[in-house]
Write a structure and sequence with these properties.
It comes from Caenorhabditis remanei (Caenorhabditis vulgaris). This protein has about 270 residues and is α+β, with helices and mostly antiparallel strands. About 15% of the residues lie in helices and about 35% in strands. The protein has 2 domains: about 120 residues, no CATH class; about 140 residues, Mannose-Binding Protein A, Chain A, CATH 3.10.100.
Length: about 270
């Protein structure tokens, strides 16, 4: 927290989260501990969350504390003075908020942006950008074309997601296993399934069609449309023997669940 002399001058929503008997140090600590807090003013602990304050002005008779925190860690070092341009980031499972604070004597200006994932989607911060993801269960078995159309039509122009890393793979696996349990426990449209899967981004390159030798038996055989996916992506652990292109044309990728403990990527039609 950067504590300096000043007071809020243009702002919207605020709160007084502590009792009137709370000390200034307790107020500053409260803001520091609350991820979404960006500033507190020494007026019965007047607190502003990200987006709630636009400007503050220097005032030698008042105290304001401004949070400078570059990520969700607590290891950032406070700036040497209060007249530079500073930044902060607050991340939750569904929301990414970043803000900057610049100074032009005698005014600090707060600028913020917020990205919130759609309902039931989770946020992942990738090296190439932000990405919201969810596993959607269809009422019946569907091919990749239907899955693409369902994403685009029903979920705000969404698309098939790639899997950037192990954390994303763990996330989609955890959501797919209950689907496996559901579809294998009873008939689905008079059909008894013994496995399930979800379609993912990844389409076999034409140069690897019908080719099962290296590099066509690796992730390099596939191209991707996911705009923030790293390359090569690290979230595609293959089932044993895959990718092999044996299921003609074997040009797409799905996470296949054979049992609750046996699952992984499969190249399939």
């Amino acid at each position: 927290m950067m504590v300096t002399n000043g007071e809020p001058s243009s702002y919207g929503d605020f709160s007084h989260p502590l009792a009137s008997t709370a000390t200034w140090n307790e107020c500053v600590q409260y803001c520091y501990d609350l991820g979404s807090c960006v500033a507190v003013f020494d007026n019965n602990c007047q607190m502003f969350e990200i987006g709630g304050i636009e400007t503050a002005k220097r005032n030698e008779t008042s105290r304001i504390a401004i949070k400078i925190l570059m990520d969700n860690s607590t290891t950032e070092t406070c700036p040497a003075d209060d007249s530079g341009t500073e930044e902060g980031i607050y991340i939750t499972n569904t929301t990414y908020q970043n803000y900057s604070i610049s100074y032009n004597d005698p005014t600090w200006t707060f600028v913020s942006q917020t990205l919130t994932c759609p309902t039931n989607f989770s946020l992942f911060v990738r090296p190439n950008g932000l990405w919201c993801m969810q596993v959607i269960e269809h009422y019946a078995c569907c091919n990749r074309t239907v899955a693409i159309k369902m994403c685009s039509t029903n979920y705000s122009a969404s698309q098939l997601s790639g899997v950037d890393n192990q954390a994303e793979y763990d996330y989609i696996s955890a959501l797919t296993i209950p689907i496996y349990q559901n579809v294998t426990s009873s008939l689905i449209g008079n059909v008894q399934y013994n496995f399930t899967g979800i379609w993912l981004d990844g389409l076999r390159n034409s140069s690897c069609t019908g080719v099962t030798t290296s590099p066509c038996n690796t992730i390099s055989a596939f191209s991707f449309l996911d705009p923030t996916l790293s390359y090569p992506p690290q979230g595609y652990p293959w089932l044993s023997g895959n990718p092999n292109g044996l299921t003609s044309p074997g040009d797409a990728i799905a996470l296949r669940v054979n049992t609750e403990s046996t699952y992984g990527m499969d190249d399939t039609a």
